[in-house]
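hi! just following up on the protien thing from before. the input was this:
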Amino acid sequence: MTSTPPFPQDPHLPHSGVPQSGYGSAAPGPAQPTTQFPPQGVPQGMPQAMPQGMPYGVPPQQPPQPQKKPFYKRVWFIILMVVVVIIVIAAATGGGDEDTTGAPSGSTASPVPGAAPGGAAENAAPEGGELADAVEAGGAAPAPVEDARSADVPAEFDSALNRAKQYSDTMHMSKLGLYDQLTSEYADKFSPEAAQYAVDNVGADWNANALEKGRDYAETTHMSKRGVYDQLTSEVAEKFTPEEAQYAVDNLDIDWNANALAKAKDYRETMDMSPEGIRDQLVSDYGEKFTPEEADYAIAHLND
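and the predicted 3d structure came back as:
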């Protein structure tokens, strides 16, 4: 058997002593491609850009966010505060002007006890010429008329007095009826003290009021004399005293026979009553309360 002699060692060649090709050695083939896998969490096909100088695995830092201004340094808050300060200053200066314009400077007016407002004190006493004439004529000087209002009377009392005068002059109410009207919770709702002050100082002629109220009843509803008296003294109607009601019916210039006839015709036309039935209604204590003579006159002239 023939042996193969060893290859000579050449110090200038790399890997000396290793056969490069030939028998017993693998022939060099084409380079095999190396499969590279993208890092986890990164989609395939996306280029990976890594900032230079940044170590692997350190995430990029976010740019610093600008800090927000506190609300008291913002423009809208400053404008709001300026508006508030202007309003406060205007209110303070306006209030001072109102206080100073209430009275003239350099003068103080002291109230006179018992003096009436609005120049009523000038009308309280007669003028100098009239007073002198009265004295020369031998008469006594008239006493000054005192106003019902005074400086120490509450405003509610004055209001109640004014209201009482309106009721007395226009509706001819009685004293008790006026008091009840002023204190009624369905009407004026004045306090009892204010209402009592009003009826005590209203200066009404209660007899004259009863006479006017009686005339209204007699002329508009054709009531009898007794019917008018009962209406004036009724607790649920006018509430005059018996003396005031008697004064009224005694001084009424009413034709009671004519009232009985007018009432009888009303019954016949509206209720179709018989003459005898009409007569009974006219004299009944629960009806019209005419006298028998007045009822007879009405029936006798019913067809006139």
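Residues 261 and 298 are 4 Å apart (CA to CA).
The mean pLDDT is 75.
cheers
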